[in-house]
Amino acid sequence: MIVKEFRELRRDRRTMGMLIGLPLLLLVIFGYAANFTVSSVSTVVVGPSAEAVSAQLPEFFDVVEVDAAGDRQAGVDDLRDNRADAALVTGGSGTPLLLADGSSLFTAQATVAAANGAGNALDVEVLFNPDLKTSWVMVPGLIGLIMAFIGTIVTSLGLVRERQDGTLEQLAVMPFRPSDVIVGKIAPYFVLAYVDMVAVTVLGALLFGVPFAGSVLLFGIGAAIFLLVVLGLGVLISTISQTQGQAIQTAMFFVMPQILLSGMIFPLASMPWGVRWIGYGLPLTYFIEISQGILLRGAGLGSLWISFLVLAAMAVVVLGGAVLRFRRDLAPSLDTDVTGESAATR
Length: 346
Description:
It is built from 14 helices and five strands. About 65% of the residues lie in helices and about 10% in strands. The protein is of the alpha/beta class. The chain has helices spanning about 1-10, 15-35, 50-55, 70-80, 105-115, 135-155, 160-165, 170, 180-210, 215-240, 245-260, 275-280, 285-295, 300-330, and strands spanning about 40-45, 60-65, 85-90, 95-100, 125. It folds into two domains: about 40-125, no CATH class; about 135-330, no CATH class. It has a five-stranded mixed sheet, sandwiched between helices. The termini are far apart.
């Protein structure tokens, strides 16, 4: 029995890769990603004394803009639209006011610590999360993580279950296009996952007091696009898996990095560039930007359009790949019905 199991494992390259290669890969990637240290914060300096004050700031404050004509509201707008991590408001002779973005927890904590280390040179005010509550930052990310977990893993079992139950051949002879099958597979999970999203969001607001400062409609659209990405990814995984065990293994391979590399736990700015680019390729990264921006900062489409655009592009690529893969590998006869009449003729 032992020899038989080793032989089966040797033939199952995917399982061997998961058992040997995946732990090593995750150790290296997550080891570099697990860093709470924030070495610098992007800072805008506004007000009459902006030029003089910016020249005296420590290196920790990476000045990205100096606006002598700006005021406190200009600094608030820069933080709300995620153009900077901190804003320093200078006056004529008063103590400069440092505004920190509380929606980015570790960055805000580092900003406050740096300001306190400067003695009485700066007054500090934390916006969007004044008490620096961890739950306020985590709940918007957890909403996306729950949707990603449910959408990817549950949906990945769909076509695999059809194959194992012997019903996939029945789909192949029915007058359906591959896109019809994909839509049919995704639609029920989309509705259920969207209901879960609404429930988790409401529960997070009731239990943890997480604010909802922005547009409900904009948040709903962002969640819908994100769901299309993760559900399409689940269907794509199911088309390349032969068993439910393989589908779950592959789905976990895509879900695990999103926990640690999306910025939900560790700030992206503290990761090395090689690991950070992996985070930029994950859909949860952009949904977290959308959810934190809308819920905590009240950001609008003008500052979040890049995240919306990236998620929409991901949805097109993933769903298109699922349809092409399904047509090529699983149901080459979907375009022809049982009478032999092609879909084009019909």
